[in-house]
Amino acid sequence: MYRVLAPNGKVVITVFNQASWIGIRAKRIPALKSIHPLKLNTLKDDIAEVGFNIIGGKFFSYCPPFKNAATIKKYNWLNKVGDRWFPTLANSFALILQKKEIMPNNIQPKVTLLNLSTPQVVAPCRKN
Fold first, then answer.
1. For the chain, how many structural domains are there in total?
2. Which domain holds residue 85?
3. Are 22 and 42 contacting, i.e. CB atoms less than 8 angstroms apart?
4. Would you say the pTM of this structure is higher than 0.70?
5. Whole-angstrom distance, CA of residue 101 vs CA of residue 7
6. 52-60 and 10-16: which strand pairing?
7. Quick one: CA torsion of 30, 77, 94, 40, rounded to 10 degrees?
8. Which residues, in sequence order, are CB contacts of 47 under 8 Å at separation 6+?
9. Domain for residue 82, yes or no?
10. Who has greater pLDDT, 47 or 28?
11. Which pLDDT band holds residue 55 (cuts at 50, 70, 90)?
12. Is 96 within 8 Å of 57 (Cβ atoms)?
């Protein structure tokens, strides 16, 4: 991803949170056995090593993974209070990353232009 992204380009990634209902129960639920939840701190360290800056992020989806739609509707209030009361326990989070690009600054030599419209008097060189 780093090689194909333009300098100072941005990318959004979404990840299942290891410290969430899904992260805790991922191995017990057959539909979730193939996911690999990550810790936010671990991911932050990995992102910095690869050469990206985190410029934003958001936690979302606080409801436990239920099969029954009525149960999901019953616990939907968790999505409303999750950001305020337990933001780091969200099921997922998204990060906005920007590619670090170190651009060299070319130092330009200071050039003074001679005014050629008027004749210049130059003193001759003397040998000592």
1. 1
2. 10-99
3. no
4. no
5. 6
6. unpaired
7. -70
8. 54, 95, 97
9. yes
10. 47
11. very high
12. yes
CATH of the domain at 72: 3.40.50.150
Are 65 and 21 in contact by the 8 Å Cβ rule? The answer is yes
Residue 6 reports pLDDT greater than 80: yes
Is 35 domain-assigned? yes
CA 60 to chain centre: 17
8 Å CB contact between 40 and 88: yes
DSSP string covering 47-88, please? HHHHTEEEEEEEEE--S---S-HHHHHHTTHHHHHHHHH-GG
pLDDT of residue 113: 65
Q: Which helix (H) or strand (E) holds 40?
A: helix 40-50
For residue 57 the two structure tokens come to 């992020």
Kindly report, residue by residue over 67-98, the tens digit of the pLDDT. 888 988 898 888 888 878 887 888 889 999 99
Q: How many residues does the chain have?
A: 128
